[in-house]
Amino acid sequence: MFARLAILPYAIVSYAVFTASFLYALGFVGNYVVPKSIDTSIDVGAPANLGEAIVVNLLLMSLFAIQHSVMARPAFKRWWAGSLPIACQRSTYVLLSSLILLLLFWQWRPIPTPIWQASGITAWLLTGVHWLGWLIAFASTYMIDHSDLFGLRQALVALRGAEISGQSFRTPLLYKIVRHPLMLGFLLAFWATPEMTAGHLLFAIANTAYILVALQFEERDLIAEFGATYQDYRRRVPMLLPRIFGAPR
Q: How far apart are CA 244 and CA 224, in angstroms?
């Protein structure tokens, strides 16, 4: 009973850290409010040289990508099931991901060399798409199960002493248009900016590459879990780009 009672505060703390990292990400990517963003730094002294900035930034993004992908795989989940209760596995995953994100924000080396700079209606449109991307990403978590995605449901189920069941396959709202609206939202938020710098471009390219690779592993896991149901879903619904014309593939 004590262990079950401890899991819920742990899940709440993990969710609070995630919330902090997500809110900071809004300012970091968009260069809003936060003291250190993708293009600005509070560090005193000469900026990092280009080679150091690229290496450090790629290492930070690689650290997030490795942790985020490896811990999400079923084999890893089976491996640590013997030492960590299932009820707090998702919260631990969320906590570690959020802490690595905060590390990335802290240690990021801006590369402010301009790539493009839009103005007028173009800048407004790009800013609108940027915020639309964040809205799609956040809303997508609620279209499936926000509490399950961030470990809160598992903690509440454990508190009641019930068995944690798996999620059924559903395709609500945006999931009827694309298979991964959460990732589509991130891509829009990362790429749509009226002021693209070399550092921001590096961030967008690296994260796009990671998303495209990670989705292949996620799709493989979903096929293994849901079988023909997911295979049929893949045939009917595109992965990231909404289908405007043409028959379902």
A: 29
